[in-house]
Amino acid sequence: MKKMMISTLILSTILGFSSCSNSTNNTNTATEVENHEGHDHSGHDHSTHSPEATTAEAQQQTVEELSQKAPAPVLPEFTFYKVKSGISYTQQDIPKGKKSAFILFDPSCGHCQLEAGQIAKNYAKLKNINIYFVSMNDPALMANFLETFGKELVGKPNVEVLYDKNQDFIQKIHVPKQFPANYVYTAEGKLQSYWDGDRKIEEIIKEYTK
């Protein structure tokens, strides 16, 4: 089956790069398209609309459909890249015998920044969990994310900031409705729990360590 690539720009617009539901954005978009004041759509030929608009609408519909699907029940093969070194990081590189928490984030998202800071301050409780901050953003924007918002996590052996260059996360694991999105997989690679949007740090710790 042909691999379907989703525009990062379209995805970022829908997710809002904050803890905002994309259902609201989609509803607003649909309303704007359907209700042009004084514009009768009956019998109107939409074939003249620009290819770019058609493509954007198709991509948005694709993201909407994917976001309704459950995350991968078993962690699939993936290839991310370490932000600092550019070295590839795959499923085979995950340390054995530990749970893994994947956090899909955007470096400019205030909610993502807050969660990173909360996790950093509670690192002692999470030192036995593999923690991966994953983003499709430009690596230059991700380079100092932990130094700025989660300095206690810098240099920790179980923490990585990974660049999802090929959109493997949304292609293979899940398309969330909100950022940050958390996915906890067991040491055997089975999905334990997931959520998107804000959660209190006590709840996050509980889910990571249970």
Automatic annotation (TrEMBL):
InterPro entries: AhpC/TSA, Thioredoxin-like_sf, Thioredoxin_domain, Thioredoxin_ResA/DsbE_sf. It comes from the Bacteria. Residues 51-65 have a biased composition (Polar residues). Residues 33-49 have a biased composition (Basic and acidic residues). Residues 25-68 are annotated as: Disordered. Keywords: Signal. The keyword Signal applies. Residues 1-23 form the signal peptide. The keyword Signal applies. Residues 69-210 form the Thioredoxin domain. PANTHER family: PROTEIN DIPZ (PTHR42852:SF13), THIOL:DISULFIDE INTERCHANGE PROTEIN DSBE (PTHR42852). This is Redoxin domain-containing protein. It comes from Sphingobacterium litopenaei.
